[in-house]
Queue: 4 jobs
Job 1
Amino acid sequence: MEYLVIGAGPAGLQLGYFLGRAHHDYLILEAGSAPGTFFRTFPRHRQLLSINKRHTGWSDPEINLRVDWNSLLSDNPDLLFTRYSDRYFPTADDLARYLEAFAGACNLRIQYNTCVTHVSRNGCFRVTDSKEDSTRRSASSWQPVFRRRIFPRFPASKQRSSMVRLPSILKASSTSVC
Ligand SMILES: Cc1cc2nc3c(=O)[nH]c(=O)nc-3n(C[C@H](O)[C@H](O)[C@H](O)COP(=O)(O)OP(=O)(O)OC[C@H]3O[C@@H](n4cnc5c(N)ncnc54)[C@H](O)[C@@H]3O)c2cc1C
């Protein structure tokens, strides 16, 4: 495996989509049982702050996407959040449903119920999931030869990475998953 992405929130799903589209071998590890675990619990009041701009008055999809606060990027216009809710103030359940549909439609490779507990680096990366602490120690321990951590390349990405939470992504130099 070439890339390991930790977390199937919106950012992890988006990374998986583009890694897959670029024909990279990747796997997303998700602690929860479905994508978008955050939105299945939060916000508690269940109403999103990110309004659903279905009726912008513009016909240009590029402009519409710029004011769309909820959709992930893909080549499929049917996979816009605006198709998943009619409400101006959609619910968090709508977004969770949308993220699950996105992951399914894009055939994203996600391993659920896998909580990463430790990432260490001693020349190469070693990623451990919570099951290592229980009976499945040998079956679930990741022992890949990860050599470097990848950060997104865009202007000011270094500053942003300290301000916002980005999904963890690790690149392997070879496949050696136990
Ligand atoms: C109260 C509140 C309200 C918000 N309301 C809105 C809103 O209305 N609209 C909006 O667009 N944004 C809203 N946000 C912001 C939004 O939640 C984040 O911008 C978004 O969730 C970030 O996506 P992410 O993929 O980076 O992280 P997350 O959504 O947090 O995804 C991280 C994923 O990683 C998984 N994970 C975590 N640890 C591990 C681990 N050790 N091993 C494996 N998997 C792991 C989690 O289960 C989760 O699925 C709100 C945030 C808060 C706190």
Job 2
Amino acid sequence: MKTNIKQNNWLNQTQAKLISSITGMMVFTASLLHAQDPVTFTDDFEGPALNPFWSTVLVSGTITFPSSAQVHSGTQSLQVNSITTAENKWIRLRHTFNQPQYGQVSIWVYDSGADLVSGNYISLNLMNDTLGKYLSIGTMDYDLGPDNGGHYYYHAWDSQQPVNTPIDRTRAWHQFAIIANQNSVALFIDGQNIYNGPGGIPFETIEFNVFGPSWRPAMTVYFDDFKFSSVVAKDITTFTDDFEGPTLNPFWSKVEIAGTISFPSTAQVHSGTQAVQFNSTYGTGEKGITLRHNFNTPQYGQVSIWVYDSGADLVSGNYISVQLRNDTLEKYLAIGTQDYDLGPDNGGHYYYHAWDSQQGVNTPIDRTRAWHQFTLIANQNYASLYVDNQNIYNGPGGIPFESIKINITGPTWRPAMTVYFDDFTFSSAFPELSMRISQVEISWNSITNKTYKIQYRSEVTSNVWTDLFGPIMGSGTRNFVMDAVIPGQPRKFYRVIELP
Ligand SMILES: [Ca+2]
Ligand SMILES: [Ca+2]
């Protein structure tokens, strides 16, 4: 008996992504046989041991974990201690991905070196090791005033040297956030945008660190609340809700403060026989009635919803707002109303809020007590807003949204109000294509008058050889059989046996 074992080894299901760029050009990338990276990873440093996501390099320094000396969230953070030795200080926490990434990365840093004439460098870096390029937000190893180490610095993909920012260092918690896209890069400190520039370089490694020459003093720095999310769509890519179901779709989570959500409601509908009804109450505290959806990963895409504006022409009402939110950066894109309608320049028109708006901006579109459609588009290259298909805003993009929020709000003293929403749509700018191998072909050179049997083994058969096909008569040529590939099955071995 002769056996011939062939291994069919697919580590993971084939991954393919279809990415459409703004020019309408389609770029198709597919990669086989690579290990999966996490799509999101957060670390609030509350565990008993450092998460194995991180690898460490400790030269002239140590890590104290967990540390409770300074925390941004919970009761723990990560403490980095540099030490004075003959060597330069170099304490790094890093994660290297299997595949280069686009995405959003943020961390909170307790800047112990603020206002010290001599300290250590602190930085958050996204690195493309292959190209020797990096994006970085950080500090100098001294603070000698606003123009000389007293502010935070950044380094863009193509910077020749660190660039000073307007943001003063203080001995407190600060958030460093980096969004690295295919088309753009945006850097933020405490939610303030400090840099926008070209993208197109993915990062292979995330690193945060404390370093400095040997002669700089020992320093203790704290890090907390790290967040990474890939910008690749792993969520649903489209979702529509005409609010015609028997219960509210679990896509939505509800918040009902000084009010309620009635579902289904038939009092006012835009389509079918049902809508969702928001009811605020008077005098029971600040109103906050919300439907929300949190995505697993930040999104680019388009959202629209129909709103029945019950507050139009009322001198006192509630705010109505539809928002795409980047909760990490505490930024949002929104269309909505004021909580009063006192004429065209004073609450009588619809308002919008762009990613970088300081306050709501008036539009030319009059409020009426009727159904109106709000449409919000947040892309890598632009953001656009529409009311009833009329374009009310175009501006820079580059900030993905992590959640959708639909709400009515208002202070205690504003009256109770009832507002209706209907016909919601969401579509991702990254329609995800997926590819998998559904069948394998097994073939062997056969001899006339011989019979063969095909067997396989896998984890499913506890690695025992099991008959698949046969006996099959040899044809004197190459024989072929097909076998289905079951989704999620990691590995299967085949062999052909020549029967005696
Ligand atoms: Ca914490
Ligand atoms: Ca409906």
Job 3
Amino acid sequence: MPLVRLLYTSKVAFDARDRAPMDAILHTARSFNMTHDITGLLACRNGEFLQAIEGPRKIILSLYQSILRDTRHSDVQLLHFSEVSARSFYRWSMGFIQESDVPKNINLYFGGGTEFTFDTMRSDHAMSFLLYCAQRDLIAA
Ligand SMILES: Cc1cc2nc3c(=O)[nH]c(=O)nc-3n(C[C@H](O)[C@H](O)[C@H](O)COP(=O)(O)O)c2cc1C
């Protein structure tokens, strides 16, 4: 089964300061992903999610269908889907990047300007952002 990576962004549909729904999402994600060879990262910032999931194609596509139906977020926008030769986020069943761990001037990393929203971001920049966080260990346990 080919290995694929999928990236999407969406809008958080609960109070993002509330830890309980976030913990519930991470709990489900980590236990399912661990038993289905899925790895990835989930970032939450400014009321938006950015997630990368990687794993066997069939499982990733079926998980994506469940994610699309999930009412804890809305406006899901597919940013990227491709076969890959290796995983980028193999260290995490679902690593979490919280707002407070992202440097305030992260927009400079991508060329400047004041706008840094997942919603308007180029898909290669979204991937670079996740790699940036992974390489600097900005991932919460
Ligand atoms: C932002 C977000 C990210 C999620 N990531 C995952 C994930 O990586 N793995 C997972 O199993 N469920 C994840 N979920 C939960 C799924 O959307 C869904 O609740 C779960 O797969 C159960 O689906 P089902 O009710 O269709 O069986 C996520 C949900 C949200 C809102």
Job 4
Amino acid sequence: MDAIRHVPGSTQAFTIRQVDNNTGPADWFPEDHPPMPEVVAHGRRPGVNACGFCHYPNGKGRPNNAGPAGLPASYILQQLEDFATGGFRQWREEQLGQAKAQYDADDRHRQAHDP
Ligand code: HEC
């Protein structure tokens, strides 16, 4: 955890603990992007992790989330509002919803035949 790590092409050095800090994640390529807004670099306490932890300091994101970099500000704000109000449904939730509906249907079917 405390051994110093490097990545190819970066002059920076971090420990795994620093890389894994979700309120101040390591920035391997600070010259690669403009200064981060405070919430992107450090999140907002309580409860908001640094956006850059998941979406990277340059906003391009990891394969398992999204790359908000370059999207229109109005679109980003709309997405955040939809996350907060439930207007945005993640595909995982969709899958869970479908799985639950399937389970309920199977259960009713089974009960109808095996009361
Ligand atoms: C814990 C990881 C995590 C953090 C921290 C995080 N996000 Fe995300 N974000 C995701 C994931 C995962 C998705 C993709 C959701 C989906 O499509 O189901 C996403 C999607 C988005 C999108 C939608 C992009 C698109 O193409 O529609 C925006 C905008 C966004 N995040 C902004 C932010 C902002 C701003 C912050 C900081 C306040 C933030 N995120 C913090 C994981 C994170």
